[in-house]
Amino acid sequence: MTFALFDAPSAEPSQFVGFAGNQIDRQSENRADDCVEKALADPRTRLMLLGDGRICLKLDGGTFDPWYGLAESEAFKPRLGEAVLLGFDASGPILAASAGIGADDLPATVKAIDYRSVYMQGLIDPAALGALAQGAALLAWNASHRFCSKCGHASETRAGGYRRHCPSCGADHFPRTDPVAIMLTATREKCLLGRSPHFAPGSYSALAGFIEPGETIENAVRRETMEEAGIRLGRVVYHASQPWPFPYSLMIGCFGEPLNEDIQPDLGELEDCRWFFRDEVRQMLAREHPGGLITPAKGAIAHTLIRAWVENGI
């Protein structure tokens, strides 16, 4: 085995996927329990307003602005008692909070846009998109973990949303990230792509599935590919990862080497699964396929995997 660290590019592939551009200093190890209260007292604090899988974006000429001053945010009735501290940048503290008004009640100058559309359309810069992934994941985790999993008592938010404490039994709970393996099975000539019923018309993507307890990333890639497509894999290599705020996952992208070619798709999971040759996939990436078939949009880790294989022969 060779040691590839010093042969790796200075900018790893994960830097070029959606939701990966977060530049906030999280100060995770230096958070007091009253850090949100201190941030709310700081006039420099900026707020990101989220809710129901959407972010409130201000229309500023031809661009969108995701940031609100504290006074400016009052019109949206933010739930500041449940706000989370994302961290700090050169301008001061940064919080994320749920908006207290619905999309129908927003002024004409503000649009509530779903996270997926925000990243697919490039509506905000990469740093803000990364902050969105952090804020959405933390708010979702706190909302779904209001009660202690040890004794069932209501828990309390601590450390700016990075810990929940149970006053009854004393247990502490910390935000979770669900690891998901996403893999492109490929030879030098062709790759395996599938489509689920909920995909956009004509869209094909890499296969994916949650990593299970006690399982390595590589074995999860092998298991999921076998379960979904009946393809056995030999070598598996890691390529890139992506924060995925739906609700708090980490997509771990890999390539897998097939040991057989006869596909046996799990039609309970997939609508279709097939081999695609490189030239056809290149047409799909360029949105020039004669049959209207496409790959996931730029920014998705599946797109990164597919493009790397098409362009570099990985």
From TrEMBL:
<dbReference type="InterPro" id="IPR020084">
    <property type="entry name" value="NUDIX_hydrolase_CS"/>
</dbReference>
<dbReference type="Pfam" id="PF09297">
    <property type="entry name" value="Zn_ribbon_NUD"/>
</dbReference>
<dbReference type="InterPro" id="IPR049734">
    <property type="entry name" value="NudC-like_C"/>
</dbReference>
<dbReference type="GO" id="GO:0016787">
    <property type="term" value="F:hydrolase activity"/>
</dbReference>
<feature type="domain" description="Nudix hydrolase">
    <location>
        <begin position="175"/>
        <end position="299"/>
    </location>
</feature>
<dbReference type="InterPro" id="IPR000086">
    <property type="entry name" value="NUDIX_hydrolase_dom"/>
</dbReference>
<keyword id="KW-0520">NAD</keyword>
<dbReference type="Pfam" id="PF00293">
    <property type="entry name" value="NUDIX"/>
</dbReference>
<dbReference type="InterPro" id="IPR050241">
    <property type="entry name" value="NAD-cap_RNA_hydrolase_NudC"/>
</dbReference>
<protein>
    <recommendedName>
        <fullName>NAD(+) diphosphatase</fullName>
        <ecNumber>3.6.1.22</ecNumber>
    </recommendedName>
</protein>
<keyword id="KW-0479">Metal-binding</keyword>
<dbReference type="InterPro" id="IPR015376">
    <property type="entry name" value="Znr_NADH_PPase"/>
</dbReference>
<keyword id="KW-0460">Magnesium</keyword>
<dbReference type="InterPro" id="IPR015797">
    <property type="entry name" value="NUDIX_hydrolase-like_dom_sf"/>
</dbReference>
<keyword id="KW-0378">Hydrolase</keyword>
<comment type="similarity">
    <text>Belongs to the Nudix hydrolase family. NudC subfamily.</text>
</comment>
